[in-house]
Queue: 2 jobs
Job 1
Amino acid sequence: MPSLNHYLLVAGLLFAIGLTGVVLRRNIIVVFMCLELMLSAANLTLIAFSRFYPGANGLPDIHGQMLVFFVVTVAAAEVAVGLAIIVALYRTRQTIYTDELTTLKG
Amino acid sequence: MPLPIFWLFTVIMLFGAAAVVLLRNPVASAMSMVASFVGLAGLFVGMNAYFAGIIQILVYAGAIMVLFIFIIMLLDLNTDKKRTPKMAPILGGLGIVIAFTIQLIGVISTTPDKAMPALDLPASAASFTPGTQIAKNLSANSLPDVHLIGQSLFTEYNLPLQILGVLLLVATIGVVTLSKKQSN
């Protein structure tokens, strides 16, 4: 049986891979996907704590799962808005590579 | 969940995530992200969070990935031209990530471990009103995950749920406004 630290380590590694993508990739769509990976890593820790620390009734703690539900819903809204912004960006700049977006550079 | 199955889903999840970062083609990245989320949903189901596993598949692998692939196709990004990678950002980024991973391993090796507690479902039925669907399912030794979440969602978390509805409405209107043809 995997223990709590197994799940926490795996979630941390998933977060680290997502962070690598956000820092290293220059395609803004891939950066966005890696942000989703980081959100999912947080979801994994929430579910793990909900399962390993049961509530007073002996069932998995429902509050952790509710938070996962809300995170997933907000992530869906965030993806819709973010992709619309990327499309608007592409329309005005003809690029989605972060190193070519240098308007704010002094 | 037995340890080999845990490692199977973990390997699917982590290799999928690594492929998202490493593959050059954005469509291939999106596909490996679906694999990563399937592995993650497997881990959720292994922790008796059936509802979270299902929405992970439906919302992420279903809805969000379709949006991503739609935008990739729409912008026609398959011609990922050969770009010369700069060394300084790569080294800096890898430095941050390696420092983070070392910290993570350090913290986890010092935190007390905990084994997964067994669920005694028939005993938990006593804390619910007898005769309800939740109590019946618990007595029959099956976890009514969706019922529990639904009950919590519409009683304790009713206000956040309504706020979430407003958020989705605002996001919908925002997307329509953003993608309208700007006329000036």
Note: Residues 1-79 of chain B form a domain with the Four Helix Bundle (Hemerythrin (Met), subunit A) fold (CATH 1.20.120.1200).
Job 2
Amino acid sequence: MRTEDTIAAISTPIGKGGIGIIRISGKDTFAIAEKVLRGSKGISDAESHRLYNGYFVNPESGEKLDEVMYVKMNAKNSYTREDMIEINTHGGVYLIKRLLEVVLSQGARLAEAGEFTFRAFINGRIDLTQAEAVADLIESENEKSLKTAIRQVAGELKNSIKEIKDEIIDIYSNSEAEIDFVEEDIEREDKDSVIKRLKKTSNNLEKMIESYQAGRYYKSGIKVGIFGRVNVGKSSLFNALIGKDRVIVSEQPGTTRDVIDGEIEHNGLVLKFFDTAGIREGKGIIENEGIKRTKLIMENSDIAVLVIDSDDIKKDEDLEVYNELKEKFSENRNVLIAYNKIDLIEDIAEIEIVISNKEIRNIFISAKEKIGIDKIIDAIIDNVDADKSLENNNILIVNVRHHELLKRANEGIERLIKGYTEKIPNEFLAIDFSETIENLGKITGDVSSDDLLNRIFSKFCIGK
Amino acid sequence: MYDVIVVGGGHAGSEAALVAAGMGCETLLITMNINFIAWMSCNPAIGGLAKGHLVKEIDALGGEMAKVIDRTGIQFRMLNRSRGPAVWSPRAQADRLMYSADVKKRIENKDNLTIKEGMVVEILTDKKRAVGVKTSTGLIYEGKAVIISNGTFLNGLIHIGLKSYPGGRAGEVPSTGLTENLNKLGIKSDRLKTGTPPRIDGKTVDWEVLAVQPGDKVIIPFSYQTEKIEREQVSCYLTYTSKETHKILLGGFDRSPLYTGVIKSTGPRYCPSIETKIVRFKDKERHQIFLEPEGLGTSEYYVNGFSTSLPEDIQINGLRSIRGLEKAEIKRFGYAIEYDYFPTYQVKYNLELRTIENLFLAGQINGTSGYEEAAALGIMAGINAVLKIRNEKPFILGRQEAYIGVLIDDLITKGTDEPYRMFTSRAEYRLLLRQDNADERLMEYGYRFGLISGEVYDNMKRKREEKERIIISLYDKKVKPLEINPVLESVNSSKVESTVNIAQILKRPEIKFSDIQKFIEQEKGSDTLEKISPQVEMEIKYKGYIDRQLSQVKQTKTLEGKKIPGDIDYLKIKSISSEAKEKLQKVRPLSIGQASRIPGVNPTDISVLLIHLKNMPTEK
């Protein structure tokens, strides 16, 4: 991505809201603004961070295109640390696009997604975690994820990582001091105490790592796939869940050939449902295609609902589907079993239970009569909460890169625990210490190799 | 007209002069006092953690330090013996007089090497190229290359209490004029501080009450060329300061040059004065004091751990409050010394100044401390001066190759604001840079430069081949449960069910090399196995760790391979933080790898730099 030119974009959602904002950033910003804006004060005389009233004009024809308000921001204090202008226009789709075209015709380039933040990052305005959080903020799909993103911007993630990193550096410095200052009168930390500290740190890291799943749920919603053999009422359940008749429901087996999705919001969480074609050997080309997609959904769902026809249980076939699901989902509890069509059954107790596993929830429903639909939603939410609650004050990891690095850091700590247990001499363990510290440092963007000696000299009286 | 002129005959200058002459160059060594060649200004000891590694590397390249200490050491110890051989480190007490005399003799007997007394005050240059030196009496010596290695002598200022006087070392005058001359040539200098403890008369010590620290029973020599050292060794002794000592010392702080602000420059954190220790670690009730013999022919002892610049009366009263030293007499008082050094970003990797061709800096004037660090820089400057005047490629060692490589890269890339000392933790590839394999790593270079004889080189190759043969044989050699189980049982290791190879057994944490040694075939009468068994054990037992280190080296190499053009103007890259800009402009790293090691240059700056390099037009 180039960073030397001037970029512009509409930075409010198109078509919504009373006004729209055009944002320009880069070295030619003021020159461009000088050409297109006519205000009470010229751009060069305008104060930074003050709102001015004026007109947006077409510099070629001199025609007034809109009455606008604009803010000039000097590079020193702007978001991107470049000269910036924000122009508040009247937000009609046609108008705002027209104004942007004029800005672009005067030498600005259309900004790519996230490019303002990218510039803020490379100009040192925000660090890596903050940049990623801002990107998440823009993407965030609901209120709770907004909160996570904002907390990250405030640097909470950074602080937590810093604490963990600090503890590892501290243990490492003890270990290194023992090697390099063997003749010094320094206290040696005993193995058990080191292992205890490492385990505690690993626990903290694990909590953060586990929160990724929940964090991801809050950021991009929970994906729920609806599976089952043909004609058990998957599409009816889907429609009942999203509350709309979107899928053609018919008595003919194999009607749903495409994967169809719909979403609902429930207490700030987005639930995305995917209806799938029934799992069976397809007869035609179209159906084969549908089955392929069904498998894809199986790979990508967070939770599976296996639908079984209570009135027509075919144990072998149902089990076949179940076994396939079981392979894909590491946690049993993420497979829910919905016994459908209970309206056709006289006594629920008589329904044959296909799978008896304590971790697996059996829910009795009638999609047609809208019985038990809430129970399915509750079960989904329960599973998410079991993953890690948002309500406690833990950091939520929502970024895939952070998740990867944390996992690697934790693997390093686990190797250290193993190494200490097996009494591997600490000159070898140094590799795991330094790798762990490096992985943690990559999240916050600061990796300093001199931390270690500083720590040693501040802790121990060295000087034979 | 000389090929190489070396200014200063300390540990750096001696090695530099000896290798330059050894490579066949007409070499002149000018020093202020020929009686103090390779004099140990401070601690009468060579080696120790990481420093011992440096000595081994100097030896592998063909330097003298290891051989000299093997001949003049009076107590030898292998430190960290309880750990793996990667961090073993040899250390020896030296007889100060014998050490110096031994080096002097080597210099005097060296072909192509002339030694002269004199104080150099001026570097003669012609169009930014060194062409000779001028002494304080006006004598001029012409040379194709000049190596400066003045140690702590440049404008040295000695402090004892609030008194200070010019001196290069106790009892010797400083070197004046040269710094000013170099400043005029555009070279920046700064000040550093170091210190030394008092020396006492051993006849006045109550030895009975002190803990004895004897040498090793079996001595492992420093030099790969020393066959065996069989010498009666003398002991060191250990005692402790007390609360009373600290009280007495604190009583003299109103006359402490350190704590009254007389000394402004920074001293080393790893070798603090006793006054710094009691201030920074208030809660520590006692500090270790080692009494180390100065030599076989003297009753003088060096009071290690008691470095001080407090006034004389405080020094003596303080010492006498220490157990065993109640009646001690000080022969020479401790002192602090401030001296000039030249921040190392001004030199290139071959230790030649960036701005003055054929002028090299070596030793403590680069901001290091320690004889070993100085000698390492000396041998590198010596070799590179010769290569330069022969128009050959400079000799640069990588961080993955040698502690010497770490030393020079750290000095240039990270700089130092205290006297720099080597630690094993500074070497990120420590498992590869071992004291036991310095010969395997570096002897080929020494051989190529003509500093290592063919015979010595061949011996190393034989040893290496033998080691590799044994390692392979351990993987090949199968043992039946019947043969190995009794061994396993005797060390409480679980038995095997089927035939296994010996290497698999050796990988078990509880198995030592000695347990399986009997399964290895070797030539009769050969002692190779005994010598290399720790190496073999380590290379098998910890293969996983060593392999990981090797892959780290590979990864870094790609970063080192991303070169940065020499004419880049960092100040114009606006997206780099201002601290990083300043550092990059100063250090002018050759590669992205080097840039990423500069303190104050963070990963964001590196990303920006990479983006910038990508966008830069490839041609002008």
Note: The CA atoms of residues 5 and 146 of chain B lie 5 Å apart.
